Amino acid sequence: MEHSPVTTNPLIIMMINMTVVFIVLVVLMYLIKLIHFIDPTKEKPKPAQVEEEEPLVAVKSEPAPAPAPIIEEGISPEIIAAISAAIAAYGFSGQVKAVHIVNHESTPWRSSAKFNTLRRK
After folding, report:
1. Residue 104 DSSP one-character state
2. How far is Cα 46 from Cα 51, in angstroms, rounded to an integer?
3. How far apart are the C-alpha atoms of 38 and 108, rounded to whole Å?
4. pLDDT of the chain along its 121 residues, tens only?
5. Where are the alpha helices (DSSP H) in 4-94?
6. Cβ proximity of 88 and 94 under 8 Å
7. Rounded distance, CA 101 to CA 81, Å?
8. Residue 83 DSSP class
9. Structural domain boundaries of the chain?
């Protein structure tokens, strides 16, 4: 008895495979929801305690002045600039007071750029 494939059309094979995959994913989704529903380790909700407290009132106050930056001796401005840039890239929106370029005519970045430009020509 010779076995032959039911179809050789790649689009039909793809649709069958995708259907099987999505059915399995939906079954897994509902299985996870069921596990969360019957979770025995979930803490039981505590009964609400009825206590009358004073109502909260918003008080407008003046903003506190920004603390002065602490500058340790022996830290170069490049390191301070790199740390400030990393903090700013992380999402902190502070203010950089000043960044001084030391010997901007021959920085390692500039010499590397010159070297790479000359090498390409």
Report:
1. G
2. 15
3. 62
4. 577 777 888 999 999 999 999 999 999 999 999 988 888 787 777 777 666 676 666 677 777 777 776 666 667 778 777 877 777 777 766 665 555 555 556 677 777 777 777 766 5
5. 10-37, 77-90
6. yes
7. 10
8. H
9. 77-120
